[in-house]
């Protein structure tokens, strides 16, 4: 349960050097970059690995609640870093075990993130379980806090009901605006997200549908 997890009191208390040692400056004792891309419920890490070379200047963080899965992704990243030690690839990705539905503001400052991914989140099919879904009004306000203006929320699922649920909640939220399918077609992250994750590959093998919805974080309304 959450009680066994350790959370930083705020993002500055977090030991980011441990996750991204190549982005720590010994001279100033500070990180040279902050995390700007988050993969919520990253599972086995396929998205992180495919995003890594596309965004070499961004720190990318997967958040995953299952211990074993988190350990697996950690090992995978260590192996990739070791095998690419000559060119320092994969130094910009890592994974953190945690409950993204509860402690996001402990890890990210306001307006810190440029992109958040929600790939094939658990559907929680039953009506009484819907409140356990990772996209709800309350949580969207937290995501809006962590995202900067112009930042993007990416969602993909093979469950039509969940797709409609996520799109509806995002559409109803005052701080998000849906992006067009033309936009989706030309965005490289949408292409990567469709194929990179383990769940996405499974759906591909079963020739299932994949529903995508992307939203931009719009400015806070002016208070007059
Ligand atoms: N995104 C991956 C993919 O597309 O292959 C994994 C999809 S899997 C169906 C959903 C993942 O979300 C699981 O690995 C689960 O443990 C994780 N998860 C569920 N609730 C979470 C939460 N509150 N915080 C972090 N991870 C969570």
UniProtKB/TrEMBL annotation:
Alphabetized GO MF terms? tRNA (guanine(46)-N7)-methyltransferase activity; tRNA binding
Specify the pathway.
Answer: tRNA modification; N(7)-methylguanine-tRNA biosynthesis
Report the main location listed first in the record.
nucleus
Q: Where is the active site?
A: 122
What's the catalysed reaction? Answer: guanosine(46) in tRNA + S-adenosyl-L-methionine = N(7)-methylguanosine(46) in tRNA + S-adenosyl-L-homocysteine
Tell where it localizes. Nucleus
Assigned EC number: 2.1.1.33
User: What's in the keyword line of the UniProt record?
Assistant: Methyltransferase, Nucleus, RNA-binding, S-adenosyl-L-methionine, Transferase, tRNA processing, tRNA-binding
The family note in this entry says:
Belongs to the class I-like SAM-binding methyltransferase superfamily. TrmB family.
Binding partners and assembly:
Forms a complex with TRM82.
Q: What does this protein do?
A: Catalyzes the formation of N(7)-methylguanine at position 46 (m7G46) in tRNA.
- Provide the protein name: tRNA (guanine-N(7)-)-methyltransferase
Q: Which organism is it from?
A: Lachancea nothofagi CBS 11611
């Amino acid at each position: 349960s959450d009680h066994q997890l350790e959370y930083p009191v705020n993002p500055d208390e977090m030991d980011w050097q441990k996750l991204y040692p190549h982005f720590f400056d010994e001279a100033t004792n500070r990180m040279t970059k902050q995390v700007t891309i988050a993969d919520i419920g990253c599972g086995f890490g396929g998205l992180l690995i495919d995003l890594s070379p596309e965004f070499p200047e961004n720190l990318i963080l997967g958040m995953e609640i299952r211990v074993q899965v988190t350990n697996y992704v950690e090992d995978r990243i260590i192996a990739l870093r070791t095998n690419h030690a000559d060119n320092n690839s994969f130094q910009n990705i890592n994974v953190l075990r945690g409950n993204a539905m509860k402690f996001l503001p402990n890890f990210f400052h306001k307006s810190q993130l440029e992109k958040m991914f929600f790939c094939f989140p658990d559907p929680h099919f039953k009506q009484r379980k819907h409140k356990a879904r990772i996209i709800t009004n309350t949580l969207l306000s937290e995501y809006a806090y962590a995202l900067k203006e112009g930042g993007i929320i990416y969602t993909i699922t093979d469950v039509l009901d969940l797709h409609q649920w996520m799109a509806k909640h995002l559409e109803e939220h005052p701080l998000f605006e849906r992006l067009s399918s033309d936009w989706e077609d030309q965005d490289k992250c949408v292409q990567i997200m469709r194929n990179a994750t383990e769940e996405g590959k499974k759906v591909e093998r079963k020739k299932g549908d994949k529903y995508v919805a992307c939203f931009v974080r719009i400015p806070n309304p002016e208070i007059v």
